[in-house]
Write a structure and sequence with these properties.
The protein is built from 6 helices and no strands. With 195 residues, it is mainly alpha-helical. α1 packs parallel to α3 and α2 packs parallel to α6. The radius of gyration is 17 Å and the shape is elongated. The protein starts with a helix and ends in a 5-residue tail after the last helix.
Length: 195
């Protein structure tokens, strides 16, 4: 329970810093904050994953942890988009991205909860584990494409042109995708699928 409070406090503080930097038109501070939050979540996810493996924890418990961290990245992105574009900046396309992020976050947290409950009950659901693995693979591919696309399209320098108000969203997209890429890649490299 204490760790959940710390997570909620950390995400709230990070979103608050992003809000202030967006409101004061400080895109580089906003970018740095987005990078810091997402990379910190990825590092914690990888450390947790490695520690659980070293302790000989069940593969379902490890997968539940990984899905929880993925969910945190998606939820952080959804919250950041909502607060930034509902209250501060104007960008017509934010609604669709917010909904997609919220759904992805809810899906990850649902998978995490399901796998965690199965692990606690001593059940091993191979179908759910395969679904989690395939979702992780799909997410990895999608996030790599997102990172490359944002760089190739020049989206990460949109803040240099004042008429583009999607610069804050691009920071969230890019660094969220970097975090999800790292978490997904680590999970796939450290897990051994059953044949």
């Amino acid at each position: 329970m204490a760790s959940m409070f710390i997570w909620m406090l950390g995400i709230a503080l990070g979103v608050a810093i992003m809000i202030v930097s967006a409101a004061s038109a400080q895109p580089l501070i906003h970018m740095g904050t987005a990078a810091l939050i997402s990379i910190l979540i990825a590092i914690l996810a990888i450390i947790d994953n490695r520690q659980l493996h070293a302790a000989g924890t069940s593969s379902q418990t490890i997968a539940a942890s990984t899905a929880r961290y993925m969910g945190l990245v998606w939820v952080w992105g959804a919250l950041s988009l909502f607060v930034t574009y509902y209250f501060i900046l104007k960008w017509n396309e934010w609604h669709g991205f917010f909904m997609a992020f919220a759904v992805a976050g809810a899906l990850c947290l649902f998978v995490s909860s399901t796998l965690g409950r199965d692990a606690e009950a001593g059940r091993e659901d191979e179908t759910m584990m395969k679904i989690a693995r395939y979702l992780t693979m799909a997410q990895l591919v999608g996030m790599v494409i997102t990172v490359i696309g944002l760089l190739v399209d020049g989206k990460m320098t949109r803040y240099l042109t004042p008429r583009f108000t999607d610069w804050a969203a691009n920071n969230i997209f890019f660094f969220g995708a970097v975090a999800l890429t790292a978490i997904s890649l680590n999970a796939l490299l450290t897990s051994k699928p059953k044949s």
